[in-house]
């Protein structure tokens, strides 16, 4: 019988012009599509970083291979073969242990396109998660066991993506469609898991933390609509009703079949280190480590995305307020790790640079939070959109101060278009740097 399966190629033999198929979920790679024609050496380098050994490819959709003369010339410029590892078996198909040629640094325009693609990838990933969480919330009352199982699968995927990568970057997203409940749940889950990973928690803790983050407010289903969102004007009776959502959430968590660690996180997500929280007024050493994380992240997102948008703080303002006036409420180690992870200017912060340009912080690498990626206002006549800038590549440039959006000049406000709601998702922190000193 004829074999009709697509041929495969070792990643060591990838070339520009080859039409390849990545046998990965779309959330597990940074490309806009899982099937595409390789157009740059940077794409080859990125594919090699994914850990794949071979790829399927389509000969009929690929460009013809280079001539023998061109191939020989390329081989002459390649680095010498690597010494084989005695313990490693050679690839019988590849037939060589030669190192691949180093990928050329992308041009400014290519780097900007990579950033746009990464942004779109995260937007799609967030939209998919938002739809999944919204469906869980709609399903929970009719089929709690099924909703619990589906949520476990969702957070397992999230935690697996994080733990498989040494570094992850936090990226600001557009204010996507979806209700506030699902956006809040995703934000809290993403930030909590990133923080838990930064603090050294293992996969089991991260799984429990993500489940607690998704379901920490499920008990609000039992509350009258008027008290589901906390208001500073609540009287004692309304405040008591609101605080009961914690107890209701634990009951719902049991119906969902959540593990004990997740139930504990839910039960303590409003407990504060100084004993001023509820429902039990526990102090720091009586609160579980993942509950410290959940309480802090829940508060941060509430400051950035309150029920009344007029009261919203910028991410920089929210972090500054927590540190300046609320830090006694949060466990010291947890708060310090959160500030290190987010940086002084978290994604979503509107800033002015030391050269007076205005910018929006778009992405922060948790390993290098003081050097974020920015979108910078382009004041040139006819410029339609901001330029991308990586502060890691700008040693003499830094952020001078934070601004509120209404402090921006009108042209900069229109072009940068700061998000009315702050939505976050994570991405693999692949080092895709622009040429030195270049923005695009």
Task: Describe how the helices and strands are arranged.
Layout (H helix, E strand, L loop, with lengths): L7 E3 L8 E3 L13 E3 L3 H8 L5 E4 L10 H10 L30 H32 L4 H20 L4 E6 L6 H19 L4 H13 L20 H8 L1 H12 L3 H8 L21 H16 L10 H11 L6 H11 L7 E4 L4 E8 L7 E4 L10 E4 L8 E5 L6 H7 L6 E6 L12
Antiparallel strand pairs: 1-4, 2-3, 2-4, 5-7, 5-11, 6-7, 6-10, 7-8, 8-9
Helix pairs in contact: 3-4, 3-5, 4-5, 4-6, 4-8, 5-6, 5-10, 6-9, 6-10, 8-9, 10-11
Name the features:
alpha+beta; 440 residues; Hypothetical protein af1432; 13 helices; 3 domains; 40% helix; globular; 4-stranded antiparallel beta sheet; 7-stranded antiparallel beta sheet
Task: Give an overview in words.
The structure is a single chain. This protein folds into 3 domains: 56 residues, no CATH class; 230 residues, Hypothetical protein af1432; 79 residues, no CATH class. The chain is built from 13 helices and 11 strands. Strands 5, 6, 7, 8, 9, 10 and 11 form a 7-stranded antiparallel β-sheet that branches. It has a 4-stranded antiparallel β-sheet with strand order 1-4-2-3, with no helix packed on it.
């Amino acid at each position: 019988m004829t074999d009709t399966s697509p041929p495969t190629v070792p990643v060591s033999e990838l070339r520009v012009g080859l039409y390849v198929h990545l046998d990965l979920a779309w959330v597990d790679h940074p490309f806009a599509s899982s099937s595409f024609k390789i157009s740059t050496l940077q794409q080859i380098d990125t594919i090699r970083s994914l850990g794949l050994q071979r790829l399927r490819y389509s000969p009929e959709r690929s460009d013809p291979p280079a001539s023998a003369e061109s191939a020989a010339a390329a081989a002459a410029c390649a680095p010498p073969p690597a010494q084989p590892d005695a313990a490693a078996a050679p690839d019988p198909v590849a037939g060589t242990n030669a190192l691949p040629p180093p990928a050329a640094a992308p041009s400014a325009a290519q780097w900007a396109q990579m950033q746009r693609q990464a942004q779109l990838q995260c937007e799609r990933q967030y939209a998919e998660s938002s739809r999944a969480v919204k469906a869980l919330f709609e399903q929970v009352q009719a089929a709690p066991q099924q909703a619990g199982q589906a949520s476990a699968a969702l957070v397992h995927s999230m935690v697996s993506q994080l733990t498989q990568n040494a570094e992850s970057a936090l990226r600001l997203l557009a204010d996507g469609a979806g209700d506030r409940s699902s956006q809040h749940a995703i934000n809290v889950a993403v930030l909590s898991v990133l923080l838990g990973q930064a603090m050294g928690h293992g996969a089991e803790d991260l799984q429990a933390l993500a489940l607690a983050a998704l379901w920490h407010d499920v008990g609000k289903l039992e509350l009258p609509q008027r008290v589901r969102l906390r208001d500073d004007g609540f009287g004692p009776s309304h405040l008591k009703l609101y605080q009961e959502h914690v107890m209701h959430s634990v009951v719902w968590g049991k119906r969902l079949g959540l593990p004990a660690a997740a139930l504990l996180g839910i039960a303590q997500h409003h407990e504060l280190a100084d004993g001023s929280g509820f429902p039990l007024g526990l102090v720091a050493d009586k609160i579980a480590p993942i509950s410290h994380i959940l309480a802090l992240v829940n508060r941060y997102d509430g400051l950035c995305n309150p029920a009344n948008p007029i009261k919203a703080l910028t991410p920089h303002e929210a972090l500054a307020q927590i540190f300046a006036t609320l830090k006694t409420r949060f466990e010291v180690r947890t708060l310090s790790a959160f500030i290190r992870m987010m940086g002084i200017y978290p994604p979503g912060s509107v800033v002015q640079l030391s050269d007076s340009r205005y910018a929006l912080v778009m992405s922060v690498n948790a390993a290098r939070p003081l050097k974020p990626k920015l979108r910078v206002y382009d004041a040139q006549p006819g410029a339609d959109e901001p330029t991308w800038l990586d502060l890691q590549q700008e040693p003499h440039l830094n952020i001078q101060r934070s601004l509120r959006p209404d402090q921006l000049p009108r042209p900069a406000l229109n072009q940068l278009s700061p998000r009315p709601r702050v939505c976050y998702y994570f991405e693999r922190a692949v080092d895709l740097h622009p040429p030195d000193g270049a923005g695009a």
